[in-house]
Amino acid sequence: MVTGRQSVVCSGKYAVFTMLFLLLFSAGSAFAQDNPFGQITTDKGAGSLIRIAVANFKPISPDAGLGNYKQTFDTTLFNDLNSAGLFDIVSKDMLPQSTPGFPAELNLTQWSAAPANAAMVAFGNLNLQGNRLVVNGFLDDAHNTQFPQIFAKQYNEEASDDNARQIAHRFADEIIFRLGGGVSGIAETKIYYVKILGPNKEIYEMDYDGANQHAITHLGTVSLSPRVSPDNSRIAFSTLGRDGFQLKMFSLLLNRPVNFNSAGGTNLSPAWSPSGQQLAFSSSRTGDPEIWISDPEGNIAHKITAFRGPDVSPTWNPKTGAQIAWISGRSGLPQLYIMDADGSGITRLTDGGYATSPSWSPNGQFITFAWDRKYGPGAPGGQDIYIMEIASKKWIQLTHDGGRCDFPSWSPDGRHIVYANSPDGKADHTKIMSMLADGTQKKALTGPGADMPNWSWK
Amino acid sequence: MISKQTLTWKSIVLSAAAFAAIAVTGCHKKSTLPPSSAMAPDTTMPAPTASISADPLAIDIGQSVVLNWRTTNATSVSIDGIGQVPINGTQTVSPANSTNFHLVAKGDGGVTEANVRVTVRVPEVPPPPTGNVSNDGPMGSEAIFHQNVQDIFFGYDSFDLTPEAKTSVSMAASYLTSHPAIKILIGGYCDDRGSAEYNITLGENRANSAKTALVEAGVAPGRIRVVSYGKERQFCTDETDACWQQNRRAQFSLDR
Questions:
Q1: Regions of chain B short of the pLDDT cut 50
Q2: B80 & B37 share domain
Q3: Distance from CA of B19 to the nearest CA of A (A)
Q4: Whose CA, among A81, A258, A428, B126, lies 20 to 30 Å from B232?
């Protein structure tokens, strides 16, 4: 019985894989050739990825301080392009000896020939002018000897290590935008998360690559579920106070909490509509936890679910703003559901187990969520990250045997997923990981003590 | 859990055996008197001896300890906060604060006292259900409250009241009805499996189940504050059924 079921699941999984890949591949966009998702998921070989060489940037001024900025810049740029999921990046060992600082100094055939075999070359120079860091970045098509230049950009910022990193992010995003089918890169995006500080939890912010981790709140209690608004102006989250968990709003522009009206009960797990005009959340103000929608100040609240049992963790379809996925315990263990934003058209997506923490993909086609498919007493099931295609309810599993995973959140380019992982299941060992949306290139962004990541919308 | 039960069972057997032995010796004397006083002829009675122990000596709030006491030559034994108890025995208690269990054994030969201190580690909870150990205040003593209003435990992923929980709730309701000055906080808790957000709503439903049952039994809803902690405040963090069960509960405390 059991083996029979397992084998069915197994073969089913393979079918799902193939199907999802085909779907991703064909549904991607008009830029079929550049479709990163399809390429990543169909072929790990170099053939389908863009072969790009990233030269070390050339220091123009002899200033000693430039060395550190250059190191930061080169490393950041390389890592951004390497983690983009678009490129087959040329190992730095295979780069030509020369360091071109300007287009005239670039010997294209040197870069397009073996061993580099680059199709694209990113290069440029850094210069310190007073206390300004000036960076010129170029992207050349190595096979187009007549008109190789794709673009040139100049960046001019106050000289600091952080700005060297930010300039590298912006240059990387520009390259990704040009070569990635018109989808903006994510190197300038932020991740909001929960930092575990002993018994307390505060809301933190970091760059998408784990750099620049710093506190947003200092409330001295337990704050959970940070969700940044689509315009990056506010963070909604919930905080444990005298009346249990309540929604709070923090303005990133004013750098202080702003008003949010709650009307009794426990209020938690906020979710921004893509317009930024509405907030969905779970509230027990009428007794049973239901999904409610209000404006960003907590006013005009109305209930859209009405069924005994927990309803929690809503997420909007960011493409349409017309549907909400959420977790409901109405039939026992928590399952993943979707409905229209007015509460109609309820569809259950998962067929069992313990499903939590949905996040809707930017293109509206997929939901990533945490799922323990064999949850129950005596069942040592693993909680892993899954993606489900909504139209077909087909799913793939992205994490395997790496400990407890939860809170997946899509990057705005739809190519990455950030999530929380605890290798041994202990809450305070939880760290934040990111991966490509096909489950490859997993890497830790934080050390232990970080949970509930939320990727900014842009 | 199992060891605790064994312990209690053993002690029942032991005290039964002791009782039998005493009864047998008593038979040689007057059979009308209770056995212990039968051991007590008039003036030259030895003073009672008493000892009390607790296992474990330190707990987290919400966990329980087994008190174990032994006396000899005693006719009546009482423990502060519990009342009259058998002369030998065990009892499981879950004090909300660090408590000095003070045992008084009275016998014909005099009075003997014994003490054991149970330390309760209170986690940092923002609305502290702790307060002073003092028995003062209009809400009465913490110990008596917890004796009458006991935490209730839930099945896995469940917020339905079990038959045991219903018994606890009706006992709690009658105590609360007769002590109208008391306001209570019901904390909803979950074990550490599953997801944080879902567990907060589950804890909310657990606390609300308890609240609803109390309100239906006549307790004014205005006296009850409900807070769900989800899995954010764990009493124990062992990956065992016993620990998970300890965490799946609605906890009552005085809302001072």
A1: 1-42, 125-133
A2: yes
A3: 43
A4: A258
Query: Residue A264 is encoded by which pair of tokens?
Result: 């009794």
CATH number of the domain at B107, please: 2.60.40.10
Q: CB-hemisphere CA count at 13 Å for B225? A: 18
Is B126 in Cβ contact with A242 (below 8 Å)?
yes
CB A134, CB A108: distance < 8 Å: no
**CATH number for the domain formed by residue range(s) A49-179:** 3.40.50.10070
A chain contacts of residue B126, beta-carbon cutoff 8 Å: 221, 240-242
Show which of B88, B121, B154 is a domain's final residue.
B121
User: Which chain A residue lies closest to B158 (C-alpha atoms)?
Assistant: A332
Domain membership of residue B19 as a residue range: 2-121
Total tally of structural domains belonging to chain B: 2
Which residues between 168 and 207 in chain A have a beta carbon less than 8 angstroms from any beta carbon of chain B?
A: 199, 201
Model confidence over B44-80: pLDDT tens digits? 678 888 888 888 888 877 778 888 888 888 888 888 8
Q: What is the ipTM of this complex?
A: 0.87
Q: Does residue B134 sit within a domain?
A: no
Q: Which residues contact B198 (CB under 8 A, 6 or more apart)?
A: A310, A312, A313, A327, A329, A334, A356
- In B, which residues are within 8 Å of A452 by CB distance? 196
- Contact flag B126-A241 (C-beta cutoff 8 Å): yes
Q: Give yes or no: residues B110 and B12 share one domain.
A: yes
DSSP B192-221: SSS-HHHHHHHHHHHHHHHHHHHHHTT--G
- Answer whether A260's CB lies under 8 Å from A245's CB: no
User: Is the Cβ pair B198, A199 closer than 8 Å?
Assistant: no
> What pLDDT, on the 0 to 100 scale, is given for residue B91?
82
List, for residues A276-302, the tens digit of each pLDDT value.
999 999 999 999 999 999 999 999 999
B232/A329 Cβ within 8 A: no
Quote the CATH superfamily of domain A190-455.
Answer: TolB, C-terminal domain (2.120.10.30)
Residue A455 has pLDDT above 70, yes or no: yes
Residues B148 and B232 in one domain: yes
Helix axes A161-179, A66-82, angle to 10 degrees: 30
State what percent of residues in chain A have pLDDT above 90. Answer: 82
Mean residue pLDDT across chain A:
89
